[in-house]
Amino acid sequence: MGFQALCVGLLCVSFLSYIYTPMPDNIEETWKVMALDAVAKTCNLVATLCDNIGLMKYEDVLAILASAHFTKPVSDENVTVIDTDFCDIPVRLYLPKRKSERRRPAVIFIHGGAFVLGSYSKSAYDDLNRLTANKLDAVVVGIDYRLAPKYPFPAALEDCVYVIKFFLQEKVLAKYRVDPSRICIMGDSSGGTLAATVTQLLQNDPNFKGRIKAQALMYPGLQSLDTFLPSHQEYQHGPVLTREMIIKLLCLYVTEDQVLPQAALRNEHMPEESRHLFKFVNWSDFLPEKYKKNHVYTEPVLGKLNASYPVLVDSRLSPLLVNDSQLQSLPLTYIVTCEHDIFRDDGLIYISRLRNVGVQVTHEHIEKGVHGALSFTSAPVFLNLGLKLRDKYINWLEENL
Ligand SMILES: *[C@@H]1O[C@H](CO)[C@@H](O)[C@H](O)[C@H]1NC(C)=O
Ligand SMILES: *[C@@H]1O[C@H](CO)[C@@H](O)[C@H](O)[C@H]1NC(C)=O
Ligand SMILES: *[C@@H]1O[C@H](CO)[C@@H](O)[C@H](O)[C@H]1NC(C)=O
Ligand SMILES: *[C@@H]1O[C@H](CO)[C@@H](O)[C@H](O)[C@H]1NC(C)=O
């Protein structure tokens, strides 16, 4: 009995020390963030255990846990909400009920989840899109693109491109009474990656050039060349996301091989031929001094990984890889970065590069913020930060779209 109790006690202690992460000093609502962080790490641990004993795959366990917050399409007094499809790809539409004389703006919403998890039906996103539709009198289109690893790169991107091109047809815009000159593409986290890429692709396509008025990128990941940016190092243990978790999930968008995440963790995953691309993501050139702190730039270690993944040098995976002339024509851009976020520097580098070529950027840096804030605006976890960010974003749309 005593021995069993001791074992249980030791297990509890090792579990708690595994999930415990010291929080940065100036974080907002520290206790709530610590709880979220503990939940994320516990889910990660459970998923890893299930995978190790062969019960269920890591990502499948996480997908089941994530789906607990999915909602049905429910209309209310202001907005009609329907699930349908555009070219066989599921979309959720938010159509304001209010009568209006003029055509409406539209927001295309691309959800986050590391290309592996998530849906537009997650309750926090559903609230966000409903509120956007009502406040702006806008049509909102959420896209449920195909997920990895079942559908690896570029499935997610292709689905987003199809849906948006379908929506941009004059007859479809007319059906929903959308003003073709007031369309924004928005995404959070990996949805921000997809939003940035789709916007680049459309803007560099002669048939779609100039059709998107604005892009809104919320704490996006924007490159997979360098996994050792200063923010990747400073926030490798969280809060909320750890470097190991995110690399494991993001690699599934490329391959299920285990050698890639292992090499990416050491930042030794890029091939020799990619040397010329590092100038596009060089934090030493593009990060504001304030964020360089005492980090020292080290040259990339290339060609260590024998397996070759051509996708890794594709700008459709890492939107930071396009050259300046392709960036130049991008529309009005809203980027949110959070201080305590592993992806902070991806956003900061994109902002520098966009501003260098004259793209108009509104930068919202949340000094006390953590990754994923917009997802924490519905039961059971409300972060004030998430609610504030949601308001800031909607205000920006009201003024700019
Ligand atoms: C409908 O819109 C009004 C005015 O914006 C708002 O006060 C009300 O809460 C909205 N109803 C719902 C269910 O969101
Ligand atoms: C990155 O920038 C630093 C400082 O400007 C420079 O010394 C280094 O050669 C650059 N490295 C790459 C791979 O572009
Ligand atoms: C890569 O391939 C070379 C030659 O085929 C081999 O000598 C080396 O051990 C391999 N490295 C790894 C990490 O597998
Ligand atoms: C930028 O990239 C595009 C597409 O890869 C290419 O056609 C163009 O020549 C490049 N421009 C410069 C200045 O390198």
Automatic annotation (TrEMBL):
GO CC annotation: membrane
Gene3D superfamilies linked to this entry: alpha/beta hydrolase
Keyword entries, A-Z: Disulfide bond, Hydrolase, Signal
Keyword Transferase (UniProt): no
Coiled-coil portions: none
InterPro entries: AB_hydrolase_3 (IPR013094), AB_hydrolase_fold (IPR029058), Arylacetamide_deacetylase (IPR017157), GDXG_lipolytic_enzyme (IPR050300)
Cross-referenced PANTHER family: AB HYDROLASE SUPERFAMILY PROTEIN C4A8.06C, ALPHA_BETA HYDROLASE FOLD-3 DOMAIN-CONTAINING PROTEIN
Organism this protein belongs to: Rattus norvegicus (Rat)
UniProt entry tagged with the keyword Hydrolase: yes
Protein family membership: Belongs to the 'GDXG' lipolytic enzyme family.
Residues in the signal sequence: 1-21
Protein origin, superkingdom: Eukaryota
Species classification: Eukaryota, Metazoa, Chordata, Craniata, Vertebrata
Molecular functions per Gene Ontology: carboxylic ester hydrolase activity
The protein, known as: AADACL2 family member 2 like 1
SUPFAM superfamilies linked to this entry: alpha/beta-Hydrolases (SSF53474)
Domain Alpha/beta hydrolase fold-3: 107-258, 314-373
Active site: 189, 341, 371
